């Protein structure tokens, strides 16, 4: 599982975050996108080195970049003065990679942060690159295209709230984590539904590749979030549920390649072709 998770995390570090940052108009995001490969290189090296001082130092370099990104959130809030649903989603996208950065440092140093198992810390890193950063960002972008639609506003709020509830569930119990998974899944399904019904059809009429990328991104969520619910319910209620290794190979890989990568590429093409 380690090699697969590392590759998924590297996709988040080198492609997903810098691509996503180009879709956020605001102070500091353009510069952060240009400099991010430097931080990503440090983070990637930390993943593959044995646990110890070297991996920890490199992990700190990446964590520092995620904390700098999080610092853009209050600056953005001060400038916009807005807590509209789309803005809340964007602010969440800026902040959540710092959770991944801190988890990376703890796991690479062998420190059981807050008593969590090192394997859980390792999986926290990809989770907050994709369910944290990417899902919130895309929900916010979707809401900006249809700010008056209730479903779009609900998606832009439920994805950040669900992500934070999942994080809180780590500190409470499995039932709290299940609640977070339910809220996050509802938000993600709304994102997938609106993307399929609105963005896919609209994009296909202007650029077939963009439309297909939106189609894949939305369709993948229908399956991968069922797996998330199954895993969370099984943990809470004691039902049979997928192993973490199986989840990484299905839910994790599907969301990384199908939802996040295809979705961000579609949004990037939309911005370039129709600025």
From TrEMBL:
Signal sequence, renumbered to the chain: none
One Pfam short name: YndJ
Transmembrane segments: 6-24, 55-75, 87-106, 118-143, 150-172, 178-196, 208-232, 244-267
InterPro entries, alphabetized: YndJ-like
Record carries keyword Transmembrane helix: yes
Superkingdom: Bacteria
Keyword Membrane: yes
Alphabetized UniProt keyword annotations: Membrane, Transmembrane, Transmembrane helix
Protein name: YndJ-like protein
Lineage, broadest ranks: Bacteria, Bacillati, Actinomycetota, Actinomycetes, Kitasatosporales
